[in-house]
Amino acid sequence: MFGQIKKMANALKAPSLRDRQMAYLNEAADRFDLEYRERQLDRGTFGRRGL
């Protein structure tokens, strides 16, 4: 019973910041895009809304 509850809780859990950053990097089209995205992560500008 607890296993089912745990599975449901994991399914509803939002992805972590690290998971979102890795997904963002994995979407890079080429090396230059990847480097640009890495710089955004280093600067902290990834995921900022309204700026």
Keywords:
mainly alpha, 51 residues, elongated
Alpha carbon gap, first and last residue: 46 Å
Mean pLDDT over all positions: 88
The ordered H/E elements are HHH
Counting helices, strands and paired strands, the structural category is mainly alpha
> Low-confidence parts lasting 5 or more residues at pLDDT below 50?
none
Number of E-type strands: 0
Please bin the fraction of helical residues.
Answer: 55-70%
Proportion of residues in extended strands: under 5%
The shape is elongated
> Can you summarize the main beta sheet?
none
Count of separate DSSP helical elements: 3
How many whole angstroms does the radius of gyration measure? 16 Å
How do the helices and strands line up, and which of them pair or pack?
Layout: H1 2-12, H2 17-26, H3 31-43
Give the structure's gist in a few sentences.
The protein is an all-alpha fold. It has helices spanning 2-12, 17-26, 31-43. 67% of the residues lie in helices and 0% in strands.
Structure write-up:
With 51 residues, this protein is mostly helical. The protein has a domain at 15-45. It has 3 helices and no strands. The protein has helices at residues 2-12, 17-26, 31-43. It is elongated, with a radius of gyration of 16 Å. The mean pLDDT is 88.
